[in-house]
Design brief:
Layout: E1 27-32, E2 44-48, E3 62-67, H1 73-79, E4 94-100, H2 106-115, E5 120-124, E6 127-129, E7 133-138, H3 157-161, E8 166-173, H4 174-181, E9 187-192, H5 198-205, E10 216-219, H6 230-245
Parallel strand pairs: 3-4, 3-9, 4-5, 6-8, 9-10
Antiparallel strand pairs: 1-2, 7-8
Helix pairs in contact: 5-6
């Protein structure tokens, strides 16, 4: 949820398509969320499912998926060309999916959806995860830094400072979102800044048969959270290796704010 405070690498003009697997088997990987969270959520990683429907869109575009979208501050950087010249998108076109669990940002994200009809898709009041269900979400109440520490983790530093103020929100399976929204010809950027939930999402995403649909992933790792164990750090590191092997570019990323 942090405001982007670094200069992001420009994406390739060529937008060459990766070779994609056409395997359609369904797999549920038993990676319990309970290994990362004390209580909720309790669903299992769903990395592949033959019932998922691929996009029928025929025109290639840039697809920007923002996990931890806050009030749209990172999306603003995207359309301001901080992620590379938008004019270089395939056919000069783009779509953005803005995923944000904090209900304090719903108004702003809905406004962006209305201002960019058919281009911006607001997934406000949804937590980015590796399966579907509902979960507790802890709010960072400090508006001076744009509520940046809101988290699924009850012991996240800013959640603790805020007295563990919480809401209940649905979870969206990000793997399914990618599978159903992305075409092989697209140029896909995935920003992951979800205050610890990356330790659940990435090991599942790495098992997605078509993870190579993602061209570039900007990942912020919240390794300093108390609940993040050495085991979960190791699992994240291994998942990054698996994604790199599937030709997902993962540049170094960190926001100072």
């Amino acid at each position: 949820m942090f405001t982007v405070a670094i200069s992001l690498a420009c994406f390739s003009v060529a937008f060459s398509a990766h070779l994609r697997s056409n395997v359609t088997h369904s797999t549920v990987h038993q990676v319990s969320a309970l290994s990362f969270y004390q209580e909720e959520p309790t669903c299992q990683c769903m990395a592949n499912n033959a019932a998922w429907k691929t996009s029928e869109r025929s025109e290639a575009k840039c697809i920007f998926i923002d996990l931890g979208a806050a009030d749209g501050n990172t999306f603003a950087k995207f359309i301001e060309n901080d992620y590379g010249p938008v004019k270089n998108c395939p056919n000069g076109k783009w779509e953005a999916y803005l995923v944000e669990a904090n209900p304090q940002f719903t108004k702003e994200l809905k406004a962006l959806e209305e201002n960019f009809p058919g281009q911006v898709h607001s997934l406000a009041e949804h937590a980015a995860f590796s399966c579907e269900g509902t979960t507790s979400f802890f709010i960072d109440v400090d508006a001076s830094h744009n509520h940046w520490g809101s988290s699924l983790y009850g012991d996240a530093p800013d959640a603790v400072k805020s007295g563990k103020v919480q809401v209940t929100v649905p979870m969206i399976n990000i793997v399914q979102l990618i599978a159903e929204s992305v075409r092989p010809e697209d140029w896909v950027m995935l920003k992951v800044d979800i205050e610890g939930a990356e330790y659940n999402l990435l090991p599942c995403l790495a098992q997605f048969k078509d993870a190579g649909l993602i061209d570039r992933m900007y990942l912020e790792e919240h390794w300093w959270f108390p609940s993040v164990t050495e085991q979960s750090k190791s699992a994240l590191a291994q998942s990054k290796k698996q994604l790199l092997a599937k030709h997902v570019d993962i540049p170094q990323y960190y926001s100072e704010t």
